[in-house]
Amino acid sequence: MDAPDGNLLTGEPFIEPTYVPSRLPSVYNPLHTFELPKGTERHYQQQFADMYFLRLAQLRDAVIRRAEEAWADFKLGDERAQMVDRVLDVRQGQLCWVVGTVYMEMGLKPNVLDDIAKEHWIAAPPARETYMSGTAKDEMMLEDESGRLRVTGESLNQHYVTGCVLAALGTEQADGTFQVIATQHADLPRQPQRYERDDSSLAVAQKPRLKREKAGKLAIVSGLGITGRDDQEIWLDLLSEYLTGEATGNPDQTNAAQISRLIIAGDSMLQSGPILSREEFLAKKSGKKHYGYDAGDYNALPTDRFDTFLTDLLPAIPITLLPGAADPANVALPQQPLHPALFPHSRAYANPPAESTETIEGLDSVTNPWEGDIDGWRVLATGGQTIDDLLKYVDKVNVMDVMESMLRWRSVAPTAPDTLWCYPFQDDDPLLVKDCPHIYIAGNQKRFQKRVIKGPVDQQVLLLAVPKFREKKVIVVVDMESMDVEIVKFRMRRPAKVAKAS
Amino acid sequence: MPPKRRTSGITPKAQQSTLAFHGTSNKVTKSGARAQNAKKNLTDHSITKKSKPDVFDVDTVDEAEPTTAEAAIIEQTKQAVVAQKTISTPEENEARAVSDARIEKYWRKKEKEGRKTPRVHQQDLSLQEKILREFDMCGQFGPCTGIARLKRWKRAHRLELNPPIEVLAVLLKEQEGKDKISVQRSHVDELLNARNMELDIGA
């Protein structure tokens, strides 16, 4: 079969009959943790102080327990460490520990005064790569309901961001700052067993436990960045052929058939929203004036092309679709599911939102961040905005370290609402990690990385950073039985040169 | 072609509730200042009233329409009233059993403990209002603005912060009275979100 010039039309015919593998089913049980109430039930008049209060109130007990375990017999000289209730109750010279939320005062954080300056001057200040100004203006403070306490110390070489709840051990200095010797965070919460939710719902309905089949694989792709123009047609075609099992031959097709679900983790469409960026708006302003709605504003190419892409995949493989920063969903976290009205063809494979909020087999449009059970394992997936924002607070830190810290602080988005736009939660903060996931996925990262972290009570989490498909042409495939991770790269190769006939 | 403009008649009132950035309800300048826009009648949107059930009537101070901040408190109170009609949670049952004498004892303890002097400027407040204001000012139950008092108590109870049961008793008793909305809204909230606030800028 292998012709020297790569031409499949010459050579021996195929001997085996065509082999059509069938796809394993995917056991899917999504959670609706991040869904906001719709319409007039969503209120925005509450302040964000409620969110910080909820975060501190819910994590305080866990942090206090861990700190007591760690520092129960800590002695500096003759003095024992004591817990102090309020952040402002620390006394000079007394060794004590206190629980509070971190607040980082950074020089280059977005400032409302810059927004006002934008109105008066023509050009907006450029988007910031990092918030650290590197000067003394970067300060760390510990805050609770009573007030704020400025914090210093060498152990602060570890990286902290606004919004993580910590216990800090130290003493107050003469100038009022709190010198920290050690810190303690809440660490990983309880991890559910595999199939725990499915089994418990069966038990409640008093049905016998099912014997679970061997699970397939989970494919994750992010950053498709579809613009609708022809520059990436070949990559999308290669991807859809691979996932539907049409590409190559036998061994690859069997591998592809084991993929039982696809997660698209954000940024699927580029330049697809009708809201123009500031530069585009300024360019338009100098052009012709249109009264009323200008139909030329909306570019339907990205959504059309993405819709076609989904329809190619959909009958064959169930898809979970998360919105990303560039997608036409709301800007503030938690981003609500992409509306099926955007996908006129593939919405045939999705349950309409009026009937049900989830689609088990088919296109499930979900929130960003998203939590759910796939093949029994708890999966937490984000589109990557939380991690990108956190990286702006720290310098030269690995993405895996960031993801590990976010889980250990039990916070999906610690920097919300400070520098990351967020809905003002009043009753319950869903951005806290209450059950430790088995797999934590962050989309739209620079390159592929994976790590397995362990918790204090035998928790094990697989951290995955998925690169942008538009740049790297890579998808990540996780084996749901053994938790092995492999990547599938798509490459173009020119055929070998044909020998000249002499 | 650009859309046809209305040349006669007033613009119809919007069906949705709108924010009023102009008009009498958001006036910051003193009433002596000249009105900026002459076309007041064309641009005078008013916030439509939220539909309220027959159970209670809203007694707000002067205007008939609530601001957005008030509207949220009204919505929360409505939901609380509906919830109370359906089921009564155990803490509510316990609160209804609290007697007036116990509430007074609670307040006397609060006045004595930890305070060197009695509270001032509270002569014309009822005991219930004093207790509720003290509950508002407790920082450990979260901020008191933007949330109805009953909802704040329930949230504190759910987070296991042990809010005093006497406060719930006072709230439930006040709810049976006439003025349901103003008792649910903390005084600080009213001050911060007040309309028609005359700012005395001085000469």
Automatic annotation (TrEMBL), chain A:
Q: Which GO terms describe its biological process?
A: DNA strand elongation involved in DNA replication
Q: Which UniProt keywords apply?
A: DNA replication, Nucleus
Full protein name: DNA polymeras-like protein subunit delta-2
What is the species of this protein?
Lophiostoma macrostomum CBS 122681
Q: Which family does it belong to?
A: Belongs to the DNA polymerase delta/II small subunit family.
| GO CC annotations on file | delta DNA polymerase complex
DNA polymerase delta subunit OB-fold domain span: 47-180
Asked if the record carries the keyword Transcription, the reply is: no
Q: Where in the cell is it found?
A: Nucleus
Q: Which GO terms describe its molecular function?
A: DNA binding
Give the Gene3D superfamilies listed for this entry.
3.60.21.50
DNA polymerase alpha/delta/epsilon subunit B domain location: 219-449
Pfam families the UniProt entry points to: DNA_pol_D_N (PF18018), DNA_pol_E_B (PF04042)
Alphabetized PANTHER family for the sequence = DNA POLYMERASE DELTA SUBUNIT 2
**InterPro entries membership:** DNA_pol_a/d/e_bsu, DNA_pol_D_N, DNA_pol_delta/II_ssu, PolD2_C
UniProtKB/TrEMBL annotation, chain B:
Q: Which GO terms describe its biological process?
A: DNA synthesis involved in DNA repair; DNA-templated DNA replication
Polar residues: bias regions: 8-29
What does UniProt give as GO cellular component? delta DNA polymerase complex
Q: Which Pfam families match?
A: DNA_pol_delta_4 (PF04081)
InterPro entries associated with the record: DNA_pol_delta_4
Coiled coil where? none
Q: Which GO terms describe its molecular function?
A: DNA-directed DNA polymerase activity
Specify where the region named Disordered lies, as residue ranges. 1-48
Name of this protein: DNA polymerase delta subunit 4
Could you tell me which species this protein originates from? Lophiostoma macrostomum CBS 122681
